[in-house]
Amino acid sequence: MSFIQVRKVWQQYGDQTVLENLRLDIAEGEFCALVGASGCGKSTFLRMLLGQERPHKGQILLDGQPLVAEPDPSRGIVFQRYSVLPHLSVLDNVALGLELPRAPLLGRLFGRAKAEAREQAAQLLQRVGLGHALDKYPSQLSGGMQQRLAIAQALIMKPRMLLLDEPFGALDPGIRKDMHALLLELWQETRLTVLMVTHDLSEGFTLGTRLLVFDKVRHDPHAPGAYGARITYDIPLNLDRHATREAVAALPAHVTSALKTA
Amino acid sequence: MRLINQKPGRSWRISLAMLPFALLLIAYLAGSAARLAENPQDKLLPSVTQMADAVDRMAFSEDPRSGRYLFWDDTAASLKRLAMGLAIAAVVGLCLGILAGSLPLFGASLSPLLTVISMIPPLAILPVLFIVFGLDELSKVMLIVLGITPVIARDIEQRAREIPAELLIKAQTLGANTWTLILRVVLPQLLPRLLIALQLALGSAWLFLIAAEAIASTDGLGYRIFLVRRYLAMDVILPYVAWITLLAWLMDLGLKRLTRAAFPWYEGGRT
């Protein structure tokens, strides 16, 4: 039985059909890149996985159980914008995820528990390259830094799956490349199941172990909303690339740095 | 260079800010001098010395009848009413606004109610307040509360709706329940907005305070102004108005400074 099972899922808003008859199985630890034209339901699909929307018809199972119908800590999310809380410092943005589940009444921890949460958050922030900015507010960070923070915030919950909705869409190409490297490293360390919506086909090919293309196969020119999109291509991407990456990562640092400068 | 592209430098800006005040002052002094030259008994535009005498009489000498300094008593009485009214309105408005703006089930009942209540002219129900709460402090404070709470509540409700849905979802994926979500995400983001709403409501609050004091009171800045009006005592009224303006301006400035100091992350506070 696969980790995520999508069973004949339809989604429509009014008489606008967005997704039709979606059938999909995703194994644990896969990195799925969701691509397709805008308005073809990739983000809708992601929102259904997140629990923000319910399928009109059909069912999504997580580990054989129906998906919880509202967002919860089992699913982490990074949006393109508004992913981090503007009123908390970088450190508190991440520590919040440790405080909230343990303090259902006050929403905050005190004393030793608080210090431990902050310590744990600081370690993760160090890992994503934000160790120097713990006390800053998100508005003082660049776009790339904010997304690093959003990823750290999602990872501190140790979610079962990580959902990314065009997380790097607003970033410069150079920064985007750094983020790809970071995301791949984190994915290899945690073996998380990742689903990522992207507009950028090459991004999907670089990162994914599986590429899902959403597209409309049926068109009715008199009723543009009559048919929805489905998954037209389901491409397993060569895993040897990731094997290579792992092998390179295992090389001693002075060798890899020499390779990079070459 | 086009007018739209010309910006004043620092010293220019200060001079330009002072200019209209200086012009008003000069116009007043000239008018006052002209009228007093014609008729030394004129009460309409008192001279600076006459006003200084009045201030000295009201603020720095004991009232012969009560043995108190009326100006400071009036100020204390008014500020107390204003502070109580603002504090109650802020707390009630914040709670109602958050309930209506972030919990759709509550908003469904509260929003239409708030909209209708905010349309009631508060002064029109002042008699009701006097009948229900009596003629003492409570009814005056209640007028301020009833006058500005709906405005604050509706503003907070609107701001609560404007919090991006992404943030609320994110907080849920971080393990928040409804209560902790409001406590740690919604409330802190609305507090700076509350201070701004208070700042905007200050004008109305003063209006309701003066109105309530004018109608039924035995002290207060508004009471004094309406009392001495009977004697055409412009030499008292004008300094009182200037004092009220100064107090209101200082409160406005204080709230602005507080917003910036307490919520450094808040971008709307930087303007």
From TrEMBL, chain A:
It comes from Parazoarcus communis SWub3 = DSM 12120. The keyword Zinc-finger does not apply. The keyword Protein transport does not apply. InterPro entries: AAA+_ATPase, ABC_SmlMolc_Importer, ABC_transporter-like_ATP-bd, ABC_transporter-like_CS, P-loop_NTPase. One of its GO terms (molecular function) is ATP binding. This is ABC transporter ATP-binding protein. It comes from the Bacteria. Residues 4-241 form the ABC transporter domain. SUPFAM superfamilies: P-loop containing nucleoside triphosphate hydrolases. PROSITE patterns: ABC_TRANSPORTER_1, ABC_TRANSPORTER_2. Gene3D superfamilies: P-loop containing nucleotide triphosphate hydrolases. Keywords: ATP-binding, Cell membrane, Membrane, Nucleotide-binding, Transport. It holds the Pfam family ABC_tran.
Automatic annotation (TrEMBL), chain B:
It comes from Parazoarcus communis SWub3 = DSM 12120. It comes from the Bacteria. One of its GO terms (biological process) is cellular response to sulfur starvation. The chain crosses the membrane at residues 82-106, 113-135, 190-210, 231-251. Gene3D superfamilies: MetI-like. This is ABC transporter permease. Pfam families: BPD_transp_1. Residues 75-259 form the ABC transmembrane type-1 domain. InterPro entries: MetI-like (IPR000515), MetI-like_sf (IPR035906). The keyword Cell inner membrane does not apply. It is a multi-pass membrane protein. Its main location: membrane. Belongs to the binding-protein-dependent transport system permease family. It is found in: Cell membrane. PROSITE patterns: ABC_TM1. The lineage of its organism: Bacteria, Pseudomonadati, Pseudomonadota, Betaproteobacteria, Rhodocyclales. Keywords: Cell membrane, Membrane, Transmembrane, Transmembrane helix, Transport. GO terms for cellular component: plasma membrane. CDD domains: TM_PBP2.
